Amino acid sequence: MEINERITKVLEYSGFSASEFADEIDVQRSSISHIISGRNKPSLEFVTKIKNRFPELSWDWIILGTGEMKQTDSPFSTSEKQEENSAPDLFTLIDEDYKNEVFVQENIQNETLRELNKSFPSPRKEILSDSQRLDIQENISEAQNIVNETVTKNNTEGKIKRIVFFYENGKFEAFEP
């Protein structure tokens, strides 16, 4: 059986007219009639479009004319017996690796947050109103003491470059000693 005859069988199998089939696989209508008449041979792109639209068809049958038209035993089909006796597929492995990676990243973040909470004392909360004046010198010296303690513990060569205070009302102040 020639390839144009196999394309004709696919056309019959689809239940579409030639023009509907061309629209369905996104090719020019004239290419269908040229292939069916035997004037032209189908390109690999043409055959791939058929296979993408009708995945149940066998590559060997479409291209070579060997075997059955419809696949009976696909490496991609999953039956319950295959799932019980076979190793997990690629996507399952990727999904498990992703879940493990996210779990490890969350643990690292949680551990880092615990370390930060140990290193820095929690700031005292004060309710500020627009009419209150900020005691800048007190805030600066308190922040310098906290940073100096931390720097002394972690890095003896560090010097303070900038201190930034962020307030709950969305304002901030930056100081450079």
TrEMBL record:
Top-rank lineage group of the source organism = Bacteria
List the Pfam families: HTH_3
Q: Which residues form the HTH cro/C1-type domain?
A: 15-62
Which Gene3D superfamilies does its entry note? lambda repressor-like DNA-binding domains (1.10.260.40)
The protein here is known as Transcriptional regulator
Q: Which InterPro entries match?
A: Cro/C1-type_HTH (IPR001387), Lambda_DNA-bd_dom_sf (IPR010982)
